[in-house]
Automatic annotation (TrEMBL):
Keywords recorded for this protein, A-Z: Electron transport, Membrane, Mitochondrion, NAD, Respiratory chain, Translocase, Transmembrane, Transmembrane helix, Transport, Ubiquinone
The protein's role, per its UniProt record: Core subunit of the mitochondrial membrane respiratory chain NADH dehydrogenase (Complex I) which catalyzes electron transfer from NADH through the respiratory chain, using ubiquinone as an electron acceptor. Essential for the catalytic activity of complex I.
Family annotation (Pfam families): Oxidored_q4
Subcellular location(s) per record: Membrane; Mitochondrion membrane
Gene Ontology CC, one term: NADH dehydrogenase complex
PANTHER family given in the database record: NADH-UBIQUINONE OXIDOREDUCTASE CHAIN 3
Membrane-traversing stretches: 52-77, 84-101
Protein name: NADH-ubiquinone oxidoreductase chain 3
Entry GO MF terms: NADH dehydrogenase (ubiquinone) activity
Length: 112
């Protein structure tokens, strides 16, 4: 059964590669020869700056979301009560310390 699954997966990948090669266009434009990071030639000079405050808020939400994702599987584990209490205490300490660090840095201050 496992061998059949591997064979089907490999064949499907080969078929998809051939289909993508068949529909590939070789339409080379001026922007295609340059690196993707350079972007396209623009007619106007756009000097808009990205607000660092919104970036820091995004990182803050990512950190707290990852900690929540780490906490969810612990609900379904059968651990002894003392181990569970230690784990949740450690997670709450990390969350509280992270929150106070964000307050100290000033990331949560919206009056800029």
């Amino acid at each position: 059964m496992m061998l059949l699954w591997i064979v089907i997966t490999v064949l499907l990948n080969i078929v998809l590669c051939f289909i993508s090669i068949m529909f590939l266009k070789n339409d080379m434009k001026q922007d295609s020869n340059e690196s993707f990071e350079c972007g396209m030639e623009t007619f106007f000079n756009f000097n808009s700056f990205y607000c660092l405050h919104f970036f820091l808020i995004g990182v803050l939400f990512l950190v707290f979301d990852m900690e929540i994702i780490i906490c969810i599987p612990m609900i379904f584990l059968n651990l002894e009560m003392i181990k569970m209490l230690l784990y949740w205490s450690l997670m709450m300490i990390v969350l509280i310390v992270g929150y106070y660090l964000e307050l100290a840095i000033g990331t949560l201050n919206w009056k800029e």
